[in-house]
Design brief:
By secondary structure, this protein is mostly helical. It contains 14 helices and no strands. It has helices at 2-9, 14-18, 28-49, 52-59, 63-69, 73-88, 102-117, 120-133, 137-146, 148-164, 173-184, 189-193, 203-221, 224-246. It is elongated.
Length: 247
């Protein structure tokens, strides 16, 4: 591989060819081309069976080029996962910035979370990571830290903010954040990851599961202040409905 890299990076015409172009390993178009090829190969063959030769052919680049961008298959796979995660989960946690209605904020976030976690792309990625983690445990750990752990921490921050507002009373916030996620995915995630379900759950089913889960969560952790706040919100909604009916 060293010889190949030298050939790529020390071409006598290198300075001329690169004038006004990205340096080796810095061209986003070429990088995207490699990742797109890798995505197709990993989906078709899985992580273990896929080879850099397969990815090279699928991406339509030389072996020297692919190694300028990625040192090995593991690094390429992690880059692909990070790109997918950035696309799928972008702005998802913005929902938690709402503070006007705790229950509805949690329901809205739970629905988005459940829908994304059980989507075909995310399930496929998780299966691939699980399959590779036995041989490369560090990769599995990084996947968890950069994805699920970050999301868990954001949920814990949200719960702590609700505690400070007097709406929740929770002794173990870390545990409660995990409980919330499990309630929103009750009966869904395992069925999807083990292919018991061949299609992702629909919006109506997710809505039912999430609302039930949020109800259980707030029944246990909600305070009297939350009950009073929700009562006032209900009265305001009823008054608005009456005025709309008269208009």
């Amino acid at each position: 591989m060293a010889d190949t890299l030298a050939d790529v990076e020390n071409d006598p015409c290198d300075e001329v060819l690169r004038r006004g172009r990205p340096a080796a390993g810095q061209d986003p178009v070429k990088r995207g081309q490699i990742i797109d090829g890798a995505r197709r190969v990993f989906i078709d063959k899985g992580f273990e069976a896929a080879s850099m030769n397969d990815i090279t052919r699928e991406a339509g680049v030389s072996k020297g080029t692919i190694y300028v961008y990625f040192a090995n298959k593991e690094e390429l796979f992690e880059a692909l996962i990070e790109e997918e995660r950035g696309t799928i989960f972008k702005n998802m946690y913005d929902v938690l910035e709402r503070t006007d209605n705790l229950r509805e904020t949690m329901v809205k976030f739970g629905k988005v979370l459940s829908m994304k976690i059980t989507s075909a792309k995310v399930i496929q990625a998780q299966r691939t990571v699980i399959g590779a983690s036995d041989r490369i445990p560090d990769m599995g750990a990084r996947f968890y830290e950069r994805g699920p752990k970050r999301g868990h921490d954001k949920m814990a921050e949200f719960l702590n903010a609700a505690i400070e507002r007097g709406l929740l009373k929770i002794d173990d916030v870390d545990l409660a954040a995990y409980q919330f996620t499990e309630l929103c995915l009750a009966g869904l995630f395992r069925q999807c990851i083990f292919a018991y379900r061949t299609k992702a759950p629909g919006q109506d089913e997710i809505e039912h599961i999430v609302r039930s889960g949020v109800g259980m969560f707030l029944k246990y952790y909600g305070t009297e202040k939350l009950a009073e706040e929700e009562s006032h919100q209900m009265i305001a909604l009823e008054a608005k409905a009456i005025l709309s009916a008269k208009a």
